[in-house]
Amino acid sequence: MFTSEGKKIIQTEKAPKAIGPYSQAIRTENIVFTAGQIALDPSAGELIPGGIEEQTRQVLTNLKHVLEAADSGLAYVVKTIVFLKDMNDFPKMNAIYAEFFNENPPARSTIAVAALPKGGLVEIEAVALLAPHHGD
Asked: Number of C-alpha atoms within 13 angstroms, CB side, residue 42?
């Protein structure tokens, strides 16, 4: 259901619950804006073990689930922003990212940051279109 402001709050158990006063995503009539996803295990709410490759895979899996809950998907992403704790991790992150966005990848910005929530190594947010067959 859309709010009076024309937005729909997206919440799915397949992705980590918000760890602050924000929504996993906001859907408007035809665009989805996701919150940044870090490598949290949705069931445990804790950062997964492993390095940048494992964390990037978990982040993109979480992002995929949020987008699907909003009647979208990775194929409809038009823009991502990647936040990296260490820019030296870029090649490894980029290789995993390419597995998820292997055709017609979205526009992307990558930014090095001093720290990420829960000590994560990578965070990714996205803007996506709705899938053509979406419904309310």
From this structure: 17
This prediction has a pTM of 0.94
Tokens of 3: 């709010």
| Residue 83 pLDDT level (bands cut at 50, 70, 90) | very high
* Domains identified in the chain, total number: 1
* Range of the structural domain that residue 43 is part of: 8-129
**Structural contact between residues 44 and 15, judged by C-beta atoms closer than 8 angstroms:** no
CATH number, domain of 61, equals 3.30.1330.40
Give the CA distances from residue 85 to residues 28, 38, 68, 120, in Å, rounded to whole numbers and listed in that order. 31, 12, 27, 8
d(CA 106, CA 136): 25
| Bridge partner residues of 32 (DSSP) | 27, 128
Distances (CA, A) of 49 to 57, 96, 102: 12, 16, 25
Report whether pLDDT(134) > 70.
Answer: no
